């Protein structure tokens, strides 16, 4: 079975074609600057063939047509006909309280995702565009499935997901902590438990997805009990351009002083804050270069970031009553040894020890343990693979369709996979 995985953004569409017999990527690519005059389409196969060109893609349907053309291209293609694609899997950021599991796309599911757009306007809308584009290009006969970033976090208890605001806002608007990056946290937690030769259900684990967008999850008995992102991906610790948690009065104070609208303030917090707001750089490679050159603001940005990460880890250790494993993943987590070392240095009090040589070597897709044999807690680097999780869920849903009853056939519990 070949599954096409789609991750649609407001002006982009990333894809991977995965052969589920081997669980290996066959081809992947990206449609960039959709809706703009000068778009970019890139495509790469597992055996190294590449295609890259500047094109105009007025919408996601045209972008998806570029994808299907590339997949069947005589020179750079990997399939002869589109009928070789058995199913399509989509990543959707916000499932709210409606979707706690992965689902088969139908009209009710589309309406449900659409109803959640106010909770994730930058994500759910474009992701719906991707689903509709696939329907137009592939038709209704090819099954499509949706995997939600929020579903892995749906096991949080009310004491973790509720905010201390009037309860009526939860009732009326469903304002609560949902969490994001759930597909990544789910993959790395299960994969790390596998590498440790222990059941995930027997571990207290903290997974740190650190990238331009970042979140941490506390996982006890195989279930998330808390996570840093909240109603939106803005919550938690500072990121590339996002502020993370702050005193709510700062928001109203700045708005009053600067005469800003809610939209303008949201733009500041989401696009102009975080590391960018402190030192002028959002890419950690630029921050690191500036830090090496002695830029005091870059030094401060990194000190703030690692301090905030360490604080969340410490609070989650308390919430779980101990820690059996700490995991770093995603762009920075997998590739920035200095960040991992700086965070773990805060944990020396509890006996966490990092092997400096192993830590420095663990980049560019390598994964393994970076802690010393006598460390009180093993520290692991795991390369995340959200696309594989989406493909696995999609495969299982499609296979269950053959046997499930009508009322059961749209939903698959990720815990069963």
Automatic annotation (TrEMBL):
ATP binds at residues 14, 209-213, 283-285, 331-335. Its EC number is 2.7.2.1. The keyword Glycosyltransferase does not apply. Substrate binds at residue 91. The active site is at residue 149. GO terms for biological process: acetate metabolic process; acetyl-CoA biosynthetic process. Mg(2+). Can also accept Mn(2+). It comes from the Bacteria. One of its GO terms (cellular component) is cytoplasm. It is found in: Cytoplasm. Its cofactor is Mg(2+); Mn(2+). Pathway: Metabolic intermediate biosynthesis; acetyl-CoA biosynthesis; acetyl-CoA from acetate: step 1/2. GO terms for molecular function: acetate kinase activity; ATP binding; magnesium ion binding. The keyword Kinase applies. Mg(2+) binds at residues 7, 386. It catalyses: acetate + ATP = acetyl phosphate + ADP. The record marks 181, 242 as: Transition state stabilizer. Keywords: ATP-binding, Cytoplasm, Kinase, Magnesium, Metal-binding, Nucleotide-binding, Transferase. It is an enzyme of class 2 (transferase). Homodimer. Catalyzes the formation of acetyl phosphate from acetate and ATP. Can also catalyze the reverse reaction. HAMAP family: Acetate_kinase. Belongs to the acetokinase family. This is Acetate kinase. The lineage of its organism: Bacteria, Bacillati, Bacillota, Clostridia, Eubacteriales. The gene is ackA.
């Amino acid at each position: 079975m070949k599954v096409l995985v789609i991750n649609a953004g407001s002006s982009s569409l990333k894809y991977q074609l995965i052969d589920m017999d081997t669980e290996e990527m066959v081809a992947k690519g990206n449609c960039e600057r959709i809706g703009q005059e000068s778009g970019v389409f890139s495509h790469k196969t597992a055996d190294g063939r590449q295609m890259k060109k500047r094109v105009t893609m007025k919408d996601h349907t045209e972008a998806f047509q570029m994808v299907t053309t590339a997949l069947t291209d005589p020179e750079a293609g990997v399939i002869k006909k589109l009928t070789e694609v058995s199913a399509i899997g989509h990543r959707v950021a916000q499932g709210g309280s409606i979707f706690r599991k992965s689902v088969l796309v139908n009209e009710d599911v589309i309406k449900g995702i659409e109803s959640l757009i106010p909770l994730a306007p930058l994500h759910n809308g474009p992701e719906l565009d991707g689903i509709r584009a696939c329907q137009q290009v592939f038709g209704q006969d090819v099954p499509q499935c949706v995997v939600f970033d929020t579903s892995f976090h749906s096991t949080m208890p009310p004491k973790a997901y509720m905010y201390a605001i009037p309860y009526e806002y939860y009732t009326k608007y469903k304002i609560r902590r949902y969490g994001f990056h759930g597909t990544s946290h789910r993959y790395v937690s299960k994969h790390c438990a596998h590498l440790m030769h222990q059941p995930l259900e027997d571990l207290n684990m903290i997974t740190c997805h650190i990238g331009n967008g970042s979140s941490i999850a506390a996982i006890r008995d195989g279930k998330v009990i808390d996570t840093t992102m909240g109603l939106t991906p803005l919550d938690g610790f500072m990121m590339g351009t996002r502020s993370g948690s702050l005193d709510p009065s700062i928001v109203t104070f700045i708005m009053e002083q600067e005469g800003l609208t809610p939209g303008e303030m949201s733009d500041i917090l989401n696009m102009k804050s975080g590391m960018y707001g402190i030192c002028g750089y959002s890419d950690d490679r630029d921050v690191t270069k500036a830090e090496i050159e002695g830029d005091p603001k870059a030094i401060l940005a990194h000190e703030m970031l690692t301090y905030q990460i360490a604080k969340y880890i410490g609070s989650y250790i308390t919430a779980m009553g101990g820690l059996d494993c700490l995991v770093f993943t995603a762009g920075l987590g997998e590739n920035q040894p200095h960040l991992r070392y700086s965070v773990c240095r805060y944990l020396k009090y509890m006996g966490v020890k990092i092997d400096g040589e192993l830590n420095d070597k663990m980049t560019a897709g390598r994964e393994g343990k970076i802690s010393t044999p006598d460390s009180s807690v093993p520290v692991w680097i795991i390369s995340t693979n959200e696309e594989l999780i989406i493909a696995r869920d999609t495969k299982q849903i499609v296979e269950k369709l053959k046997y499930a009853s009508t009322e059961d056939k749209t939903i698959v519990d990720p815990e069963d996979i």
